[in-house]
Structure formats: C-alpha cells, structure tokens
Design a protein that fits this description.
The protein is of the alpha/beta class and 274 residues long. The protein has one domain: Rossmann fold, CATH 3.40.50. The chain is built from eight helices and nine strands. The strands form two sheets. The protein has a seven-stranded parallel beta sheet, with helices on both faces. The protein has a two-stranded antiparallel ribbon with strand order 1-2. β7, α5 and β8 form a beta-alpha-beta unit. α1 packs parallel to α2, α1 crosses α8 and α3 runs parallel beside α4.
C-alpha cells in the first residue's frame, strides 16, 4: 500500500497500519559528523548512522579511547569511520575538524552537534563563575563554533542537514539545581531556530532534539537522585535510552524530514506533555 506523502524514503508497508515503514538505509552514501561521539547519545547516533548506510562517520570528542571504540563499531557496519580528538569549545580545533573531514571525504552531508556538559546539581547561589564558564562554553560557544564552520562547508555545496542536541531543560526546567544547564540549553534552542531561518534559503536545514530523562554518563555524573522515583514521574514510567534519541536524530538528518525546519523534537517520554 503506497502513501503519496512518502516518496522515495520508505520501504515495505506495516502489516498493522498499512502505511510504509522507514527505509533501513536513510543515511545511505552520506558523510556524517558527530561531536561528543564517544559515549551516550553521540555514540548511539554515530552507530545508527553507520547502520543505516553512511559512507563515512567522523566522530569527534575529548576522550580518544572512547572515540576509537565508536569508530571501530561503525566500521563493523561497513562505514568508513574517523575518530578525531577535538575540543569543540576552541574554534581553531573546530575549524581543524571540519577541514580534516572535508579533505578526507570531500563534503559534509549530515552533522549532529551533540557535545555538551552539565553542572553538578546545586542551588544557583552555590554555583560559581568557573561553573558558569564551563557550562556555557560547553553548550553554547561550542554549538556556535560548530554551526559556523559546518554551515560554511554546506553552503559551498548548497545542501546539508544539521541537528543539535538541546534538552527539555531548555524548554521547561524539570528540576531545581540545573539553572545554568537549563539557561544554556534555552540559548541553544534560540540559536538553532535563528540559524535555521538563515540557512534554509541556502539549501541547509537546521533542527534540534530535546531529550528528557535519558540514561547517560553525563546525567549520572550530575547527581541524579533515585532513578526509580524519577522514572515513576514520567508518563512512560521509565527512563529513555540513547538509542531512542538516535532514532530521532537520524530521522531529522534524513530526507524523510525534508519539510522540517527549525524544529525542536522532544524525545522525552511525554515529560513536556505532562
């Protein structure tokens, strides 16, 4: 059963609904880049890109051993993979990252700006200037640098897709103690929406995902409380998995999302709806 709204991006039909199922090769032939790709959501997204046919995946981050492990796993799917130690809070390193990717693979088709930091949970009056600098450098300055250089590379070809990892905390702060993280993610959401409006006339789409309670090393380091209690407060009554966010990222980076511009897709188990 065919559906006129899904042209060239779907495969066989669902036996339940009759509507077409997503293609298993949404990233076929694409050159992809993931920042913060050594663990958590970044690693899951890199692997999903490779699984769905990416010809190359560039994995950037600070921890070399984790980057290399992600790259090796991507190669198991047949993708070329390049691990590059990069501090995305430094513009010269971001510029170097993009240049190496272009020199090696000739173009950038899809990028996921996932790298970020979260402060240790504490009341605002206990947070200092160093924590502020760390959070805003890691979450806002880094995205600014990445978008700036990725957009230039994509504008040169007149096409490309970018997704940025934000958070439901940037929409509605779910808990006290993360004031700086929440403020930085709100700034990133605004940055994404403005960049999207500037980029779309030049053939490039910019969107974002906003994960909720997803179990990652960063979340655990921030001092989350009893996870069973946290999960019980969510509509789905469970925490999210990095792989579930990766599915949303790959969809936004695929041709299936060709009419989606400047959108923030909540992958939050219903948190924002509650």
């Amino acid at each position: 059963m065919a559906h006129p709204g899904w042209i060239g991006v779907m495969s066989e039909s669902s036996p339940i609904t009759g509507f077409p199922l997503p293609s298993a090769d949404r990233m076929a032939g694409k050159v992809c880049l993931v920042t913060g790709g050594g663990s958590g959501i970044g690693r899951a997204a890199a692997l999903k890109m490779a699984e769905e046919g990416a010809s190359a995946v560039v994995i950037a981050g600070r921890r070399e051993s984790e980057l290399e492990a992600t790259a090796a796993a991507c190669r198991n799917f047949g993708s070329q993979a390049l691990a590059l130690r990069t501090d995305v809070t430094l513009e010269d390193e971001v510029e170097r990252l993009i240049k190496i990717a272009l020199d090696r693979f000739g173009r950038l088709d899809a990028t996921f700006n996932n790298a970020g930091v979260q402060e240790r949970r504490a009341p605002l009056e206990q947070q200092g200037r160093a924590v502020y600098d760390d959070v805003f450098d890691g979450n806002v300055r880094s995205v600014f640098y990445c978008l700036r250089h990725q957009l230039r590379a994509m504008f040169a070809r007149g096409q490309g897709r970018i997704v940025v990892n934000t958070s439901v905390s940037g929409v509605r702060n779910p808990n006290p103690g993360l004031s700086l993280y929440s403020a930085s993610k709100a700034a990133v959401i605004s940055l994404v929406r403005t960049a999207a409006l500037e980029a779309v006339p030049r053939g490039v789409s910019v969107n974002a995902v906003a994960p909720g309670r997803v179990v990652t090393d960063m979340m655990l380091r921030s001092g989350v409380g009893d996870m069973a209690s946290v999960a019980a407060g969510l509509p789905l009554r469970r925490m999210g998995k990095p792989e579930e966010v990766a599915e949303a990222v790959v969809w936004l980076l695929s041709d299936a999302a060709s009419y989606v511009v400047g959108h923030v897709l909540a992958t939050d188990g219903g948190f924002l709806a509650s």
